[in-house]
Each structure stands twice: as structure tokens, then as C-alpha cells.
User: Fold these one by one.
Assistant:
Number 1:
Amino acid sequence: MDLTFSDAELAFRDELRTWLAEHPPPPRPTEGGDDADFAWRRDWQRTLSDAGWAAPHWPAEFGGRGATLTQSAIYFEELGRARVPLPANVLGLLLGGPTLMVWGTPEQKERYLPPILTAEEIWCQGFSEPGAGSDLASLQTKAVKDGDEWVVTGQKVWTSAAQWSKWCMLVTRTDGDVAKHKGLTYFLMDMEQPGVTVRPLKQITGEAEFNELFLEEVRIPDANVVGGVGNGWKVALTTLMNERAGLGFALQVRLRQYLDDLLAAADERGLLENAAYADKLAELHTRCESIRLLAWKGLTDVEKYGQPGPEGSLVKWLWSDTNQQATQLAADIVGPQALTYGNDWSYELLRARGNTIEGGTTEILKNIVAERVLGLPRLKAAA
């Protein structure tokens, strides 16, 4: 793994860095709640898209820049360095679009990819259910064939951005008589149709980032099947691997920013001379650098094997644990301000509580690392 940038990579970084400096987003809205905040991010993505910076990792034929894996990593690091928001349609850009590029038909690519880039059509991910979170293959939402359509009934949960989405990456059970992994099908579902009900879930931060999604005899055309009937598990794995690999860089940059702010706060309060605080901050720094290097290693694996590997689970596991430790330490360093509702310190402390649940629970990620990275035997259930 060589972390030395080539001349082309340095030129890419400098071009992006200059553009971000010259085109900062407008100030984040202070009124209007979640809707105003999302609209602000949507407008920002359109600005990025107009300049060709919404998804540089996409091939040029689909509106990207054909960026290399290293350039894609540089992209996320520079967004973090500039402290600008991620694009609003991040699920479409990082998950939906790349999944369609692998499994979609030419017609699907032509129809769905352009509006993802411009944020004209927002995407969400309909995977988790009340009884099938980390164990995705246990999902019970059913799709029954009716002519050239499928009739879908069921429930999803933790569906991010569903309240603003036009399309949903939906995995359902289409065959209940085969092994649970083999009876799944991946659909593109129009969210703006009868039978689709979205109920926002307000978090302890006060925002409604996630939603419950209820489907009552929703109709999906057969043309909206992705990857073939009964092949939903393989298609979903492509989405999930891109989720952990693509977000890895964004997560580690965000953690680096937070730790830098925390170091500055400790310095301002004269706490860097306190051995107890200095040791904890040094440990967090070491963890942060380890996560950064693991994220870079993930790129090497993609270059070798052609797709993200299970090591992405390790990045997410270590990030979530480290971020929780950092926000907890902030409460000691910053003091009452970190426990006062309505500021960045308190928001991060509250929001971090969900890190070890979202995107795969830490327990499940540990199993993936143990079995698929370390090659340890599966744990057998007690008789």
C-alpha cells in the first residue's frame, strides 16, 4: 500500500481544493428544521453536479470524472478538510448508482443515473425491517407477481431520507420455499405512489433522520427488478459493500475533524498538560490514524479483487467505537457546554449513541471480521 500521491493525484486534489475554496456553500439554515437543512444540502449537491464534482468516482459515461480509487478517497478527504456537507443524495451516489452500474440493464442506467447526480431524484434504502435488521436475509416483506407487475406488502424501518426520496432500493421476499438467501429480489420502488406510507422517527438529537416505511399492496413494474428475480441477495451485497467502503473515508475524515476540535478545546483549557487527558487524547489520535490507514487499505483490496472486501466492516466497527469514546471525553474536557442541548458538542454526544447500531451492529460486524477476515470458525448455537 503506497500512500504517496502521483502527479495526477496531486493535480486532482489541488483542483478540487481550489474549487471548494472558491465555491463555498451558503450558511447552513438556522430555521425551518429538517426540511430546510435537507434542501440546503440538495442545493449544494446541484452546485457540485454543475461543476462535475457530485460523483467524480462515477465513470465519465455516466456523468462522473472517471476518478481512480485513490482520487475518490482524496475527494472525501477534501470535502472533510473544507468542512462542507456531503451531497444530499449520498445513498444514491454511493449505493444506488454503483449498484445499478453493476447489475442494472442499459435502460435502467439511462433512466435512473442522471437524476441521482443532480439530486433531482433522491434515493433511500429499504433493507432493514423490525424483525430483520443485521440479519437481512430474514426479511419478511413479500412481493407477489401479478401479470407484468409485483404487488408488495410489508414494513421497513431505519429508512434514511425516506421522507424526501423518490426511489427506494427495496429488497423483498419473492419465494418462501427456498433457502432464505435465495428467495430475495431487489426492486426499484417509486416512493410517490398509493400504498407507500412514511413515518419519521425522531431521535434524541431532535431530528428525524430515519423513518418507518409501510407498504400496502404497492405495485412495482417487472422492469424495475434489478439483477434478476431471486438474485436479490447478491445485488444487496453489492450495495452493502459499497456502503461500508464508500462511507469509510467520509467517516474517518469526520472523526479527524472532531478530534482536532477536541484537541483545540483541551489546549484552550490548559488540559493538554494533564497526563490523564493527554493519554486519552493520544489514544484517540492513534485510533483515528489506524482507521484512516485501514480505509486506505480497503482501496488496495478493491484494486486487487475488483470489489470492496469484508474489511470494510472493521473500519465501521472501530470508527463507531472510537467516535463514542471521543464524544464522551468531550463531555469531560468541554464541560457543561457539551451537555447543553442545541450546540455541536451536545449534538455529537447524542448522535454518537447510534453509531454502534446503524450500518450493521457492532456484534454483527465482529462476526463478519472473525469469520470472513480472520477465518475463524462459525459460532455454533448451544444445543
Number 2:
Amino acid sequence: MTHRSLLCFGMGFSGRVLATRLLAEGWTVHGTSRSAEGCAALAALGVTPWQFDGSTPLPSQAFDGVTHVLSSVPPGSPRSLDDDSDPVLTVHRDDLLACGAAWIGYLSTTGVYGDHQGGWVDEQTPVAPNLSRAARRDRAERDWQALTPAAHIFRLAGIYGPGRNALDQVRRGGARCIIKENQWFGRIHVEDIATVVQASIARPRPGAIYNVCDDQPTPPEEPLRHAAALLGMDPPPDVPFDQAELSPMARSFYADSRRVRNNLIKQELGVQLRYPTYREGLQALLSQG
């Protein structure tokens, strides 16, 4: 079997699911975390850990034998950097070029499309970010594409999965259904992210951009109401958006409204989503406890 080795920068919620799958298939997996505790957690999974804070380079041996690279590190982090550039590219541009990886992936966001007032977008829709963090992601996408033809861009919708989902929000109490007319959100189960990335690795198309979302964008209150019904609890109260006391970060998520098509991952990569809507995803999470 051909040796396959992944180096994942920022191995967090999504990366760990992918790592577990690849390790089971005989891959060597390296991953970075900003903390010693995070590195210990990666080691417990069977991942070779490297501590990376976005400013201090990894040792050269971290790139030895690497055939595939994935980054989920957001641009502009850590906060100590003076600019909004991608820290992985800033620190390791030459190493990434020298390692000759056959496939490189970058996890971005559907936020780069900006506000379409509830309209549909796909990979052919011009990007028009209107939030600063989305604009940084747009710049990072272009920087990764300029680095190498091997780059693949994955624009992720809102991620949910074990420990991060509407069931947990309702169980904790204090959840609210923020009602804003013509507001649409997209989402994707963390397992389906791994499925899409694996499919791209199996069928690489240099320069590809993929929307990674499920089949059913919805107003944000729908999954909360469904989660409450699954739990046999009263639905969270409705609160009009203009009356909701939200942090600036939480409020910013309501600045854009769009519905994102995922046809390309099905047509080109042959992906069949395990959780095509939030209903299947939440039911599975409830069954898994």
C-alpha cells in the first residue's frame, strides 16, 4: 500500500473526526494544537502532535513524508499577529511548497458569499463578504490557491455534532428562537465534513472549491424547535431579532442570509450525506446519547 500521511494544521472538532477515519485506514496522521493539553488529546487518538501557535515554526521533521495537508486555522490568529494573514502560510509557505504534497485542503466558510437576502448561491456565485472575518477567509482562500495548484477549498456551513448541537442548547436551558424575517442558515454534521474531505482526497481536482452543507437550509429557530420536540420539552421562547439582547459576535451571524447549494459534492465527488438534514442529524445524536 502506498504510504499516505496527513499533516493537519488546527486539528479541532472537524479534524479529529477525519483523523480517526484515516488512522483506521492505515494513514499516518500529524496534527497541530495551540496547547500542550490539546497535543496530549491528539496523542491519545493516535495522532502525532505538534504544538503550533501561529508564530513559532514547526520543526522541519513535521513535514517529513507528508503526502496530504489540511488547514483549518483561521486567518488573523493568534491575536498577537499584526495583520490578518493566514498564519500557516505566513510561517510555513516554503515548507508547504517543498514537501510536495499531492493534495492540500483548506477549510473555509460559506460566509464568503456575503448576504443574498435569502437567495440561493453555489460555487459559481461571486464572493462578496460583508463581515471582516469572512473577508479574511476570502483572502486566505485566494492565498492558498496562489500557493499551489494542489489546493482545494471547502466552504463549510455551520458545524454541529456531538457536544455542539441544538439538543445541547435546549438541554442547558436559556435557548431562544431569535426570529428575523427571511433569515436562512445552513449547517453540516461534522461526520459529513470528513466524508467530503475523504472523497476529495480520493478524487482530487486541483483548484476545486466545494460548498459543504446539508440539503436543507432553514430559519435558525427550526432546529431548536425540533430538538425540543425530540426531548419532549417545551420549545424555546420566540424573541424578535430587534428585541434580542445579543453579543456583537452573535448579532453578526444574522447579518447575512443565504441558502447554499451542495450539488457539486454529490455530482463530482459522489458524496451521499449521512445526515442530509438537521432532522437525521439530531435524531442520531439523541440516539447516541
Number 3:
Amino acid sequence: MRLLLAIAKRISGLYFILLLLCLSACNACQAQEQEQKQVSAGGYTFKTPGPGGIGKVYMGREIAGIISPAGGAWLERESREEQDKASIAVANMGLRPNSVVADIGAGVGYYTFRVAPKVPDGKVYAIDVQEEFVAALKERAAARGLTNVNVVKGDSQRINLPENLLDLAFMVDVYHELEYPQEMLQDIYRALKPDGELLLLEYRAEDPNVQVKELHKMSVEQITQELGANGFELHRQEDFLPRQHFLVFRKAAK
């Protein structure tokens, strides 16, 4: 009888230890799952940030960190035209003299001040979320005497323009850094005219020879998936740029 009681106690002790181990493992798994898959109301998930990322994920893609005003010199580097052929991109935007255009994430205005002369009877809205860039854009527009450039302070979810205003909105190496891509796309959709277009230039993730950090590159598949979920359809795809996709979207038919 004593032997049976001893065996029973030993089994109970082992069971208790195993139970503690299982509970500990379960808690660790739940914590990890919560860290990796915590879903917000906007459909975003969160994880431990990767190199250059913010730890926020949209449709399987980690959002990259935004370039700071300290990187303004890189935006105007002398090699940019040779590397990315901005002049070719601007020439293929389909601009008319009276086009109303938004440069979203304008930075120091590298594209803004190349587009403005193409729309002398129109308007270019240079939009940025960072005060330093906004101030620089205003100063540069005034110095150039460009009365058709309006500088707008946007925020992380809105471009702060009226409805049904734009013939063209474009983002150059910006979309992958949007903290709220879903909300921004919906706001851009609202600001575009019924036949307005949204142009994205993004470094090609499909090309291993494009020497850009992974989170700062995007594939056509990923871009069309995200924009398709927000009411856009791919209208035109061009491959004439050395390193970037040139993707034109329109509002999808309802």
C-alpha cells in the first residue's frame, strides 16, 4: 500500500511539473503570437521591426521608415538623374498645360519643380508631412517665382486637398513609407477626379540588381494587391526607367 501511495505521489509530482511546463510554453506562444499578429482596427498587424522597418505590416508587407529631412541632400544628389531618369518619368506623366497635380511626399521638391513648368496654366500641390520639408518647399517655390506651386502640410492619413480636384497624383519612392497606406489611398481616391490617375514610382523588388534596401523596394504584384483593395486598378505599366516601376492606376469601375 505504501509503495502504491509513493508511486501515486511521484506521478502527481511529474504531472504537476509537466503541467507547469505546458502552461509556460503556451504563455510564451501566446505572447509571441500576440506580438507578431496583433491586429488593429485598420487591418494592420504588428511585429518586431526589421532592418529599416517600423514593425507595422499591411497585407503582408512591412512598412519602411520614412526618410528624414537629414536625407534631403540624398534626394537631390547629382547622380539621381543618371540613376533614375526623372526627366523621362516626367515626360511620360501625360501632363497638360492646365493639369492639376499632387506630388505626395514631395520632400525637397525634386519632382515638384520639374513638373511645375509643364503645367503653366494648372497647379502643382507639393505635399509633405514633415515641417522641415514643408518650409523648404515654400522657400524654394518662392525663390523660383513659381506661382502655380502650392505647398500643403499633409498628415499620416490625409493629403488635405478638396474632393474631385486632381488630374494626377504621384508618389516617387514614397508609397512604401506611408504609415497608413489604406487611409492615404482612400483619401487620394477621394481627391482624384473621376478620370484622374495615380502614378507610383517604386524601386523594383523583382530585380536583384537594384541595390536598394529590401523594404524600400516593391513588386508589381504587391502594389496592385494593395491598391486593388482600395478601389484602384492598374491602367498602365511601363518599364522604361532603369530601376523603378512606372505604374499608373485609375479608379476601378464600380
Number 4:
Amino acid sequence: MKIPSRTAAVLAVACLVLAGCSKDAPTGTPPAGSGPGGVGVDLPRADSDFWNAYARYVPEKAAEAGVELVSTTNSQNNVQTLISNVDSMVTQGARAIVMAPQDTGAIGPKLDELAGRGIPVISVDTRPDTGQVYMVVRADNRAYGTRACEFLGEELGGRGKVVEFQGSLSSVNGRDRSEAFKECMGTRFPDITVFEEPTDWEGGRAQAALETRLATDPDLKGVYMQAGGVFLDPTLQVLKQRGLLVPPTDPRHIVIVSNDGIPQELDAIRKGEIDATVSQPADDYAGIGLHWARRALAGERPAPGPTDHGSTVVELPNGFEDQLPAPLVTRDNVDDPALWGNGSGS
């Protein structure tokens, strides 16, 4: 049926005012008008309070967005399992995939394969190094490292010893946080000694590293945990065992800044056990990720610029990235109801 020219013009204007909409579907996206489709979601791991919270948000946000979940799997921090899970979801009828690849280098070939088959991929929290993606939904991880550095540096008056629990350096998040933290410390606080401890996002490795460091450097004054979801409990256990889990008013207090914004971190800030965290939004990672999956299935092409949900889309060499805000949380704003860690879904 031919659409009247006046109606077509109105539809065209409506598309342009919709944030990120374009008349041309991107590579790897079903053409507009091809009908609804199901979405497959792979969860990256089950040993992190942050990712467990994200998992709880997924079905809730899918219902809100009107997205059909074909399947939800868990790749347990293993890229080969992720690839197998994706293949299974596609076989079950998934026409778009939401994933959070922890090894951001190894997933590239699978992403290109999916793009070639017309199956758009939304990558949550991590930005793949290579491989075509429809959208990355992610906060600025370099800002995490910089904010942690600035907080620790100012709290310590620019002097002292700090241990840093680095995430996996095969992940863009681990690299971004580590590089930004190091650059900031070297430039702004050269009198602070930083002990970099690789952990591969494993709490046990962080715990062992802290025990060793406190034995060799008992005058340690700060800790940067790149992921509170896996590092918080082990860190607090070590400090408690050594009689160092004391309030900020005690001169023995070790200043701790974290990343994630899970409810447990917020409670630890209230208790004076840790001092700050950068809150990455588990609720928005789920909601905005599924939002982009729905738009991909509708055949829309993202466009750089501000969104209608308070973020900014930027173009990448291999797709687009929706950069979500991630606030620093301290004693001053820990009770803010806008923080996802204070919400009922957390």
C-alpha cells in the first residue's frame, strides 16, 4: 500500500526527533519492519554481588521494555562458554544478543560472525576490543580510576602507601581503571607509593595480596578496589583479623575507595568501614541494554549525541557506545535514593 506523502513526511520527522534513530539500519541489524524478535541475555558471572544484582534486574527491565527474553545464560567468566551460550540462544530464536564479555579481546570474531548473520549485539559494561557491536552500554571506566585516585590522594594528603587490586588486564575495564589510576597518581600525587596487585577479578587473590602487603608494609594507608562486588568481603575480613577495621576517626584507619555501588558497599560506607565507591548502575545496565536491543530489532541506527535517558552516545570504530553517568559515593551522599544500591531492586 502506498503511504500518502504527507503521512510519510510526518513519520520521517517523528523518526528524526527520536534520540538515536535513523532511517538506515546498521550492519548486522534486521531491517525496519521485519517484525518483533526475541532477545538472548548472557550473564558474565555469578560470583559477584554486582552481577547478581544485574541478573535480578534483567527480567524486570525486559518486562518494562516489552522485550521477549528467549533465553538467559551464564558464561561464568569463560569466553568459550559465552560463545557456546550465544550459539544456543541463536538456535532458540534470539534475534539480538545482550552480553558482557569479560575477555574483551577474544570475543571479536564471534561478534563479526553475528553481525554478518544480521544479529545485533549489545555489550553491557565492557567494550569489545574488536568485532562489530550495535551498542556498548557502559560508564566511563577511566573516570573510575581517576576519581579513585583523586579521592585517595586528597584523603591521604598526597603521601603514604596504597595497594590497588587490579581487575583482569584482558578486560578493557581492568585496563582503563588501572591506566587512569596510575596516570593520575603519577601526575598529581607522586609522593604516594602504589602497589599494583593483579587479581583477575578474583577475591581470593586480592585477599592473599593484602595479607602479604600488610606483612611487608604495615604502614599501608589506602586501598583501591576495582570491583567491590568481589573484593569487599575479603578486604574487610583481612582488616578485621588484623584489628584495622576501625572508623575514619581512628589514626589506624585505612582509607578504602571501591567501584560498583552495591548495597553492601553503601552499608560499609555508613559504618565507616570503607570511605567511597564509584557507583556503576546495575539497573541501567540492564534497562538501557534491553532498550537498545529493542531498538536494534526495530531496525533503528544509533546516532552520536545526548540521549533521552541522561547519557551520551559516541561513535566507536566498531559500533557505538552509550556512556552512562557513574557518581562518586561518600558519606555525604550515601543515602541518596537515586543510587541504584539504595533501590528496592538491588
